Amino acid sequence: MEWTISKSGSATVMALQGKLDSFSAKGFEEALLAVIAAGNTGLILDCAQLDYVSSAGLRIFYLAANRLQNGAGKIVFCGLNENLRRVFDIVDLASEFLILPTREEALLQF
Amino acid sequence: MNLRLYFSSFKGKLILLVLAAILLPLAGAGIILGNLLQQRVYTSFENELQVALETLELLLERWQEELANNLDRLADDRDLETRLRLEESGPAADSTMKEKITAQRKILDIGWLALFDLNRQLKSSSKFKSKNLALDFSALEKFQIGQNDSAYFLIFLTEVKQRGQVLGYLAGGLQLNSPASMVFLHDKKLRNFAFWLDGELIFTDLPHGLAAPVKKGMADFVLGGKSYKGMTRGRRYGNRQLQYALLVPVAHLQRDLNKLAGSLLAIIGALFVIFLILLAGLANKMMQPLQSLTDYARQLAAQKFSPRADQALAQLAICSQDEIGKLADSFLQMERQLQIYLRELAETTRAHEQIQSELRIAREIQMSMLPHLTPAWTQGKPFEIAAAMTPAEQVGGDFYDCFMLDAQHLCLVIGDVSDKGLPAALFMAMSKTLLRAVATLTRVAPAANIPPHEILTQVNRELCRDNDLFLFVTVFLGVIDTQTGALQYSCGGHHPPYLFSAGRGLFALNHQHSAPLGVKMAARYETAEVALQPGDGLFFYTDGVIEARNGGGELYSEARLVEFLKQHQTASAEEMTQQIAAETKKFSGATPPHDDMTVLVVKYRTA
What we know:
The structure holds two protein chains of two kinds. Chain A is an alpha/beta fold.
């Protein structure tokens, strides 16, 4: 799995690519927590290129949400494919995070 | 010994190098030495010639004197001629004798000849009044002045006069130590007409070099296709110049030279062989430490790198200051490092084995935590049930549970802890224990079970406490009233099970989306209900099943699962459990499972 980090206004955009599973989870967790630790409170996770998320990946999203809410920030997801959307629904991440179709719409939130 | 192998060794190369370094200058020195040798041989030959010539000179003087004294006596000696005539006419004279006599006579036509031996004794002489000078030289050959191996040679001495008239010239014989000499025959007019050369008489005009004025010192001559070295001298008789020469064939000189060079080469060769033996010995000695290093390394490997404390090597490392000594030192250091490394490796291996063994025990504990669904357990109950949990690693985060809440209510649980491995296994143990504890111990009233969503809510709160790592568990929990077939269930972020029914077909149970347990303290769970008909079945699974991958990275997918269920819904619970395991295994092929996989199948039948 790969990711790129960019700034867009007050939002920090992480574009994810590939598979977020047990193997890639640790590296991604460190990267994401580092972004939050750097004081970025507005986070967009662009999943347009993300094929798959395992439960190990979902755990990171919960963890990130928890960290951000302590600092009064928020995470917006965008570009989820059908499979991801289904996984997000099953574990009710939709009630936890704002999930929008495109990055443009996500950017309007900040 | 294989010579090629020897010279490809370091030792052999060293020897070759030294030989090259020595032989190249030696070859140069040899050429110079050869030239010097040749020069020396020629010089000594020249000296010998000089002496011989001087002796000859002296002899000539004496002979001249002697002959002058005896000339008159010789002139008056008619005996010889008389004798010759007698022999010619004598009855006993055969043809050979006659020929001989004729030859002698013809020779006598030349003039006066005298033959001397080494002691300068006059052996025979003859005088002849010459009328014509037509000469038969083949006769002269037979005259054999000096037989082939008795080295008498003709030397012109002096002119012979009789009554004031020059008859010819006298020649004398001389034995020389030199292997060959030559002399010349001159006619009355002092023209050269023949010369005697190395036992061979050659009739020719004199070679140009000899006809020329007297050369000084050594000169080269080519006569009759042969090369000679020699000296010429001149001698004056009246107003005429007489030349004579001492010549030695170059072949003879060369023979001497070769003999000398041969013995020299033999000495050099012997020295060379001795040198070679010494060199090989030295190379052996130099290479000895290298050999012991090689032996050491080989033995070290053969003994599986156990400490050797090689005394010879330690000695070598301390005493020898050269590269091999340093190498030995490095070897010893390597051995020390190797031992440290091996010890560490042994410790690591031990630690690893310990972890592995602990993991095996953990796996046994985990597996024993899952209920054993023996036929005895379902005996007499209105359902059949089968389950299987396959962790991706030694231990996993999946679990299932089924237990009777009371005589009537069957509680079914399937759960999946986020991630896998040991952390997930610990969280799984906690979740499973809590779920069963809350389900069985927390009773609102006797015979009144708490609804499934309450169980999830309470367990969720318990799991959320101090869950800093945000591990979570998805849970589906259902309670079947085995009397009525009513199924009450609640879902915490888990895939809902499939219900397969002869009358209603195949469908996933409806459920309210809700968060998994452990991440959200305020999460709300709801209870839903569905009625089971006798013969209906439930298929519970974790995402490891539908996310099993094949070599191409393709997921087994829910669609394939639905297809599987359609085809196998008539099978028994046990068969279904085994077949889905076989099916996903076939689908994955050689790709190792990346997540835990659990299925739980329940088939309801009337009591």
